[in-house]
Write a structure and sequence with these properties.
Layout lengths: L2 H23 L2 E2 L2 E2 L3 H13 L1 H11 L1 H13 L12 H20 L2 H7 L3 H12 L6 H24 L3 H34 L4 H23 L21 H9 L7 H27 L1 H21 L7 H17 L15 H27 L1
Antiparallel strand pairs: 1-2
Length: 378
């Protein structure tokens, strides 16, 4: 598939998935709002597991192409089979990330949620340096600093503009939960990247296996949290049983045709379908285009989510939030060298500058060797 189509699909599906999952929490059925972050994680994993059908369809239709890829991978020193148990590790990280994120999405505006998620770049960079031994230079530090300023600006503006102290407390709690999720999100990204370097993995297959593990892991924790009382600070946002999850009430809300039904049921089904494609597209971009392209596309995603929230009248326009987003986007583009600052040494260690220095060194070395040969011949 053409890279431009992948990136456009990533933006469209990512925007709609954020809006749909927020829309679910706004539905009221049986006199209560739909507050089921753990079951939202479960529906997400159902969507991921369905990717196995896409994988089966792919290897059935393109069997020769698939076999050739495996043969080429073996020639390049990659392994073509991975122990499915290994994928429990990134899936566990994803479960923690997703659950914390769904709680955060429940407590804060969708646009702010999307913008704060840009801070995952900071933790991913730290983990890349520590575990993948990557070097970062001064333009990377500058980009990360600007990203932090942008997120802080947007967060402060939205929090101060919220209508009550209770809303402010929820927004702050949502931001804290989202920041905590960055740790496991970054861990998942690093682990999956190492797997892709070591193994020849089909994106559909990888997402499908992770989805199956996710259903198992999520099912275990749903059974546990069905009996764990809600903290008093979020008691108003918990199911009627006042526990962190209420599975029986989840099914009652989903299949009772009153209140905001059948809108809730349709949103859940659409959410499963969008997750099915979103995760596959994300891994396809990382594998076939680049993680850089994926991250640059993510810079645009908060803007589209914000526009969607404004169109649906879930939020009001705030100039301060726009400034925060522009700062965040500017910092991210500096980090990924889309924007290069030509002063104070910020352009000395970009990828292009490093490649240019290497080419110059090779030419100088070749010229030096030629001169030595001429001298020896004389």
């Amino acid at each position: 598939m053409h890279p431009a189509i992948l990136l456009a699909s990533f933006l469209i599906v990512g925007t709609f998935s954020s809006l749909i999952f927020k829309g679910q929490s706004k539905c009221v059925v049986e006199g209560s709002a739909y507050n089921h972050p753990f079951m939202q994680s479960m529906t997400m994993y159902i969507g991921e597991a369905l990717c196995m059908f896409l994988y089966i369809a792919y290897i059935t239709k393109y069997r020769e192409r698939y076999q050739k890829k495996l043969e080429d991978a073996e020639k390049n020193g990659k392994q073509t089979k991975i122990n499915p148990l290994l994928l429990i590790i990134p899936t566990s990280c994803d479960f923690i990330t997703s659950t914390l994120s769904f709680f955060a999405l429940e407590f804060m505006p969708t646009s702010l949620y999307s913008m704060v998620r840009g801070g995952g770049l900071i933790f991913t960079t730290i983990f890349s340096v520590v575990f993948l031994k990557r070097k970062i230079y001064r333009h990377h530090y500058l980009g990360l600093l600007i990203v932090m300023i942008g997120i802080t600006t947007a967060g402060v503006v939205v929090t101060l503009k919220s209508s009550s102290g209770g809303d402010q407390s929820k927004i702050i709690l949502g931001i804290i939960l989202l920041v905590c999720s960055f740790i496991t999100f970054s861990s998942q990204i690093i682990i999956e990247e190492k797997f892709f370097h070591q193994y020849e993995l089909n994106p559909f297959q990888t997402v499908g296996i992770e989805g199956c593990w996710g259903i198992l892991i999520c099912g275990i924790f749903v059974a546990i949290f069905n009996y764990v009382p809600c903290p008093s600070s979020i008691a108003d946002d918990c199911p009627p049983n006042k526990n962190l999850e209420d599975v029986s009430f989840f099914f009652k809300q989903v299949f009772t045709m009153e209140g905001n039904q059948p809108a809730l049921l349709l949103l859940i089904l659409f959410g499963i379908i969008l997750i099915l494609f979103f995760n596959a597209i994300s891994l396809a971009i990382t594998k076939y285009v680049s993680s850089l392209a994926r991250n640059v596309a993510q810079v645009c995603s908060p803007f589209f989510v914000w526009m969607g929230s404004l169109i649906l009248r879930w939020e009001s326009f705030l100039y301060g939030q726009l400034i925060g987003y522009l700062i965040l986007a500017f910092g991210t583009l500096i980090f990924y060298e889309i924007i290069v600052i030509p002063i104070w040494g910020f352009n000395q260690n970009t990828k292009k500058a490093i490649e240019k220095r290497k080419e110059t060194e090779v030419l100088l070395s070749a010229n030096s060797s030629s001169q030595d040969e001429i001298s020896n011949g004389a």
